[in-house]
Amino acid sequence: MPPKKIAFIFLFLNVILLNSTFAQKNTEVDKIVAKYPKSFASTEKLADKIEGDFSSDYDRARAIYSWIAFNIKYDFNAFLNPPRTQGFSYSSEAEKQRKIKQINDNLIQKTFTSKKAVCEGFTALYQHLASLMGIKCEIIRGDSKISVRDIGRKTTSSNHAWNMVLIDKKWRLVDVTWGQGYYDSSKGRMVNDFSPIYFDTDPDYFFAKHFPDSGTFLGDGLSKDDFLNGPLIYNKTIENDYRIKTPDSGIIEAKRGDKITFEIKNVSKSNQVFYLNKRNQPVKIQNAKEKRGGLEFQILYDTNVGEYITIFVDTNSIVSFKIISK
Length: 326
What we know:
Layout (H helix, E strand, L loop, with lengths): L21 H4 L2 H6 L9 H11 L3 H15 L1 E2 L1 H5 L12 H22 L1 E2 L1 H14 L4 E8 L15 E8 L2 E5 L1 H4 L1 E4 L4 E4 L10 H7 E3 L11 H6 L2 E2 L1 H5 L4 E3 L4 E4 L4 E7 L7 E4 L5 E3 L4 E3 L2 E7 L7 E6 L2 E10 L1
Parallel strand pairs: 1-2, 11-18
Antiparallel strand pairs: 3-4, 3-8, 4-5, 6-7, 9-18, 10-12, 12-16, 13-14, 13-17, 15-16, 17-18
Helix pairs in contact: 3-7, 4-7, 6-7
């Protein structure tokens, strides 16, 4: 992971906006894995346990995700104080590859035994366990979008890592780092809160928050401009399949007195929809109308609206936009 200047990977997601109950979030695979020991004698023993309990590659890949998310914690101290890059010398390509493998093996073992890591450790352990079960898995490095300040950024940076796993001839997107929890800025500590939504995530949602360094791993039609200028979506958006139809850009140009139109799929009048003004006071949406399986409404861009506007549904943040005054 690059030095401190990189964006906090997922660390400013609001504590209130991510919580839901264990029973609501977990599949049968997760419930079985939750009863596993927190420690195994080796990664091979853990892989054997998963292979014995689950017969399909999909369930095994999910079990790896669940066990890591339940048991490996994000090392926030290491994130703030990253170790120096480990260099080495070599006299041949074979020796170079051996030393790279040794460094990676050490990272995997450290993550597995210490039960803490940053994203490199999470992804390396996930890939290792998948390989023990004969499941093809890649580590992808790239940019992540986690703050309103990321809306409209000019460039991407390599500040995060995730996995892609091949199951039933289809590459599945996996971010187990984000599946294990989040940083609670009000308490100054990490909070363990298992989230299943970053296993086999819908690419439309995943690539709204991730952009790979290599074009080899781009989704269909994904562009750097779309990523940088798109709106910021949140965990609950993915969990409840709230599709942001309008505006289609995360940057809204408006002048005072304009009414900005929003349309969000899978929301209805039975939901409480509001936004926060620049004094962080909730403003309830009054003019919403149901349209095409969603809700359409307008917000008046007046002096009470700040630089960013975040839409909430039933107390959960759903989407944020940046507003530029004309």
